[in-house]
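Task: fold both queries, return tokens.
Query 1:
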Amino acid sequence: MKSHLTDVDRRPVTSVSCTPHVHGTTRGDTAHLRCSVVFDDGTSYTADAQIKNQNSGGRHNMPDLYSWDSPPPK
């Protein structure tokens, strides 16, 4: 998330902190998170985020899919 916001949205990010802390998801499950994002300029926002385990229905070795609320306009 930190590198995506910095690279794609061109907004340098100081930190991202999410709860709950997720170390992995089980097959076919989605973890729902609440993340606090702080930008280098001191502004911040809170994002809802999801981590989806795509390995279900006979699919194997698929990467987790990450998504989150976009930051407000600059």
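Query 1 returned. Query 2:
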Amino acid sequence: MPGTGSEAAATGARDSSLPARSKLAVTAGRMAAAASRSVGRGSGSVIGGKVALKLDPDLLARLAEHLDVVLVSATNGKTTTTRLIAEALRAAGPVVSNALGANMPAGITAALAGGSDARYGVIEVDEKYLAGVARDTSPKAIALLNLSRDQLDRAAETRMLAERWREGLQHTEAVIIANADDPLVTWAASSCKRVVWVAAGQAWKEDAWSCPSCGGVMQRPGDDWFCQECGFRRPQPHWALQGGHVIDPNGAAWPIQLQLPGRANLANATSSAAVAAVFGVPPQVALERMQSVAAVAGRYDVVNYQGRDVRLLLAKNPAGWLETFSLIDGPPAPVILSVNALDADGTDTSWLWDVDYERLHGHPVFVMGQRRLDLAVRLEVAGLQFHVVESLEEAVRMAPPGRIEAIANYTAFQQLRKVVAGG
């Protein structure tokens, strides 16, 4: 829907400063997005961005020229962290962000094209596109949260992604806010000129036992890590998550009070506070603003479906499932697991064997989704009692009393959202 009043005026003023070719590209992109929405094909952000970039390949750079940009990239948590940073920076001025998670160049372009009088651009970026988007947007800050295996049929091996980040970011002028507890992220960031290290934790360690610098075996006592062969080791953090507090570079402790559940979101808030500080927003102010975030693109929503409370949780790879298992209600809370293997998920489901499903012992478990039989085999090997079902309605009907935890990978999660929205 077009903006009105000052918002429309600001958008028009911003658009008027663009070259004629860029104006045409923005208009064509908006028309393509509107057409996509009108036929029920989603938000239209991706197709709109593709059309716009086809007409003006430099459009992303032009749209970012007037913004102070922060990029957020990771395997897990980038959508939530992007939202937390955006809320924090709104304390200092208007923000434009790809809040719906369209994180490749087309989606990012569409998001910025729909901006108004924004001062800040808070942009989630797919790991594979980070270096290119950084070149186009000249960010002031880049947050690197974690790297782990994901979409095995089409994504690069994690060591290769880290190398791509390392090479692609080594000349950036941006401040890098990097997770010191992830050896792959540390290695990628250590080529950069200005790095702020954050001790945000790393629950999933199975992709980081080999030294990314020399290939030696990593030593990982407690939260520390180092390589005896080449000396590569965990840097001293500037910011840290300690219990429920953010510890800033001066040693001051700031309480984190989120509506979002789980240790992973405490880590996301810590990194977000470190990013906000780069833009002059104090940790107390940043963390207070983050309290308003209750759900992110449907993640963590508790919905009523068929008279039952169902909490929607996204988990798309082994690291994400591990974090999700840590925040669900304890036994005997019923749990629904839904797994697809469509293009957006990655068609290789071998990662199911790396997930510690044994943690679900004591829960009534219901299995659904396109690859429910693959998941059923994995759960049988794990020794779990479960039911294979055809639909959410069937699972809810069979589930014993209590809030239902529904955990799904990417497209399965979107399908669940659509089902519960329909009643």
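Both queries returned. Flag for query 2: The two ends are 26 Å apart (CA to CA).
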